[in-house]
Structures are given as structure tokens and as C-alpha cells.
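Page 42, continued from yesterday. The earlier attempt failed because a stray header line got pasted into the input along with the sequence. Redoing it now with the clean sequence only.
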Amino acid sequence: MGCLYQISFGSKSYIGITTTTASKRWTRHCRDAKKGADYALSRAILKYGKSCAVVRTLVVVDDRIYLRDLEKRAIAAFKTKVPDGYNMTDGGDGTSGFTYPNNTFSESHKDKLRLAWKSRENKYPNLGVTMSDESRKKMSEARRGKPTGRHVTHTAETKAKISAAGKGRKHTSEALDKISFASLNRSDLARKHMSDSAKKAWVERKRGT
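This time it went through. C-alpha cells are written below.
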């Protein structure tokens, strides 16, 4: 069950549909206006006041699809789309035919949009660029054989550098205690993946507690 309703402020109106009642939907419209919703109807409510609105039910039906079609027809028949009325779309529960009030954005809003888009272009220079099949193939070949996941296999040279960098490094007593505690509390799953030497050290450390 649903209804087609009309909200009027003088000669301008808004056409809408709802699965509740026109009065309940009107209450929600007023709540949206109070929260600062950027709709033509919301601005009309704030400008003229709730008491100046005329809310009425036009049709009550139990077919949702038919109701959506009625909304489109009513918006066109009553000419309630901005700037002649307060509807910002063609109706039918969608954004088809969306029109911003007065058919324009404010200059400050335009500046914000430009700045946001420029920031995205600087961060992602290839944003919106469609690569050719040839480019995709070259990128695929360039990545082939290279690790892409978390488990990276280091070369012997890299391992030697990591080992050399760690030599002579001393942990504080507090750090050693934390490492020991973490080792003692490893899960069974984690221990399955430990090396033999690590397992032996873990067992010895466990016995020492």
C-alpha cells in the first residue's frame, strides 16, 4: 500500500510517493529541512514555514510499480520540477532528470569541486585513463615473476644485508621480557610454522618458567 501526495507553497508544489501516509512523509520532509538537507523542498519549508504548506493525498494504490509511474506522470502534469516546482528529478524513485535548483552550483561549491578533482588528479595521474591492450600486456609481463603478496622471498644478497644489519643489536631488558612472553604464548598453529631451532629454543624457554 502506498500513496501519491502533493505539498504546496502557494503556486509551487512538490509531488512524492510513500509507503506510509502523506502526513508521516511530511514529518520526515520537515525533519530533513531542519537538518539542513540540500533539497529545493527543504529550502521552501525553511523559507515559508511548515504552517504555510498544504499537504494532501492524491491517490492511494497497492501497486508499487504503478505508484512510481504515477509519480512521473504527476510531476509532468503538475509541472512541479524545478524551477517551476520543488521536485529535483523526474520521479519514479530515482535520480533521472536530476536538476540542481536554479540549474547551477554556487561559485564556492564549484571551487570546492575543482579543488577536490585537482587533488585526485595529482595523486592519481592515470585516473580515468583507459589503458590499451598493448599497455596491459606490457605491465603484465613486467610484473611476471615478481612477488605480489605478503610472503616475499628475499635473495641471498638481501638476506645477508638483513643479517649484517641485525648483528650487534641489543634489546633492552623490557624488550626481552616482551619477546619471551610473546614466545611463551604462541598458538599451536604458530608453533607448527616455527623452524626446528626456534622450536627447541621455545621448549627450553618454556621449561625455564
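Notes: The beta strands are 2-9, 12-18, 54-61.
Reminder to self: strip header lines before submitting.
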